[in-house]
């Protein structure tokens, strides 16, 4: 027994040393040395590169600011979009590929938060600016084709938050979602974009996790990064129509999870979403009342976008049962708290899906949840589909 323990300790020491070395040399951005505990790569050498467009909304017209590939590297471009005419933007996820995006003719409206179950759903979270992995997953699952066009028919694509920060293609991911959302609606399908804590931080100007690239690009465009997703930008006003929790069929989808603290306020999903959206543009220096529902939803670790108690299993079985009963749901699907594999918890009543997408993409591998009716599967980009429970 002693030899086994020593061998395990040696193996762990080697694992730890390899992880620290990989972090030091920038081979990976995050190393988990214990469940939920990680060392992060601190040196950020990213800089001026393709980005945008950032579409500023003015009275009757728009101003597009963007950095695009050129023969000599990159160049900054500013265009004024004619008033009252259809606008078409071009997005460059790589130096050699691009896609076009039609700007909505009218302002987006607040999303519903209850939907009947569709015939099929693909569910993914925590892409964090990883456009390559996101594209690999969507094309292999048949959600879109190689030209970035929607091919999922009446299916639903459910994105459970955190497409901002850490990666280097945040803007491109957002415009792709914006594009697919419109095409899905035309086909009878739906894209659900649920806000995570990183969306909310960026909308509120909290830039702790923003990569150096975006600050350099903001300086080059003459537009502070805090303004990129303000309410007077196209992506900013679009994101402000999104929810922090939605119920599709009998399943609740949200980034962190519904906590006992939030559930105790006995609010409807619509009330939770309304308070969360209200918090996005709270006046600087103002804080919600202590112990209020608004504080629980917008300013605490128990909020729907931050709560980790479900995946860390600090919530009790009874807590989970009461929350699901309160919202007449059978389960919750959550991201936010990293797991090595898609993991059912609490007797399949919670499904944790925050995978290490960045590391997986480097190995040519992506995985997400596929749902048909009440049947849950894991689906990867190689076509492997397995029942989850």
Which key terms come to mind for this protein?
six-stranded mixed β-sheet, alpha/beta, 389 residues, Purple Acid Phosphatase, chain A, domain 2, 29% helix, 19 strands
What does this structure look like?
The protein is an alpha/beta fold. It has 3 domains: about 1-40, no CATH class; about 50-100, no CATH class; about 115-385, Purple Acid Phosphatase, chain A, domain 2, CATH 3.60.21. It is about 30% helix and about 25% strand. The protein has 11 helices and 19 strands. The chain has helices at about 1-25, 130-140, 170-185, 195-205, 210-220, 235-240, 260-265, 270-280, 295-300, 315-325, 355-360, and strands at about 30-35, 35-40, 50-60, 60-70, 75-80, 90-95, 95-100, 115, 120-125, 155-160, 190-195, 245-250, 250-255, 330-335, 345, 350, 365-370, 375-380, 385. The strands form 5 sheets. Strands 8-12-13-14-16-15 form a 6-stranded mixed beta sheet. A 6-stranded mixed beta sheet has the order 11-10-9-17-18-19, covered by helices on one side. Strand 1 and strand 2 form a beta hairpin. The longest helix has 23 residues, at about 1-25. The two termini are about 35 Å apart. The model has no long low-confidence stretch (mean pLDDT about 95).
């Amino acid at each position: 027994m002693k030899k086994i323990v020593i061998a395990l300790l040696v193996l762990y020491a080697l694992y730890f040393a390899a992880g620290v070395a990989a972090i030091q040399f920038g081979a990976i951005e995050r190393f988990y040395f214990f469940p939920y505990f990680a060392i992060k790569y601190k040196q950020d050498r990213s800089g001026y590169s393709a980005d945008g467009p950032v579409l500023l909304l003015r009275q009757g017209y728009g101003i597009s600011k963007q950095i695009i590939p050129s023969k000599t590297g990159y160049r900054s471009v500013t265009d004024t979009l004619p008033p009252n005419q259809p606008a078409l933007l071009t997005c460059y996820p790589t130096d050699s590929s691009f896609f076009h995006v039609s700007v909505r003719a009218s302002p987006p409206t607040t999303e519903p938060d209850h939907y009947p179950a569709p015939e099929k759903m693909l569910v993914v979270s925590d892409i964090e600016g990883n456009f390559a992995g996101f594209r690999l997953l969507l094309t292999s699952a048949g959600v879109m084709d190689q030209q970035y066009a929607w091919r999922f028919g009446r299916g639903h694509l459910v994105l459970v938050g955190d497409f901002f920060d850490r990666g280097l293609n945040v803007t491109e991911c957002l415009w792709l979602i914006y594009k697919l959302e419109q095409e899905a609606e035309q086909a009878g399908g739906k894209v659900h974009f649920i806000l995570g804590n990183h969306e909310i931080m960026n909308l509120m100007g909290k830039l702790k996790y923003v990569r150096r690239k975006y600050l350099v690009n903001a300086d080059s465009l003459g537009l502070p990064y805090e303004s990129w997703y303000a309410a007077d930008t196209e992506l900013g006003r679009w994101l402000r129509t999104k929810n922090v929790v939605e119920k599709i069929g009998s399943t609740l989808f949200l980034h962190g999870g519904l906590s006992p603290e939030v559930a105790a306020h006995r609010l409807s999903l619509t009330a939770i979403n309304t308070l969360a959206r209200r918090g996005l543009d709270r006046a600087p220096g103002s804080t919600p009342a202590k112990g209020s529902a608004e504080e629980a939803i917008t300013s605490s670790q128990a909020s729907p976008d931050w709560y980790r108690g479900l995946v860390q299993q600090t919530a009790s079985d009874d807590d989970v049962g009461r929350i699901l009963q309160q919202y007449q749901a059978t389960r919750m699907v959550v991201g936010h708290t990293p797991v090595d594999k898609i993991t059912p918890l609490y007797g399949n009543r919670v499904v944790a899906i925050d995978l290490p997408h960045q590391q997986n993409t480097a190995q040519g591998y992506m995985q997400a949840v596929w749902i048909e009716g009440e049947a849950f599967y894991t689906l990867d980009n190689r076509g492997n589909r397995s029942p989850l429970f």
